[in-house]
Amino acid sequence: MNKLLLATRSADKMREISEILKGAGADVELLSLEGAHVAWSAKEETVEEFDSFLSNARAKAEYFAKLTGLATVADDSGLEVLSLLGAPGVKSKRFSPQGASLAGKELDQANNEELLRRLTGADAARRRASYLCVAVLLRRPSAPPESFAGRCWGRILEEPRGTGGFGYDPLFFHEGLGKAFAELAPEEKNRVSHRGEAFRQVAAALKERPL
Question: Among 28, 43, 166, 196, whose Cα sits 20 to 30 Å from the Cα of 15?
Answer without folding.
Answer: 43
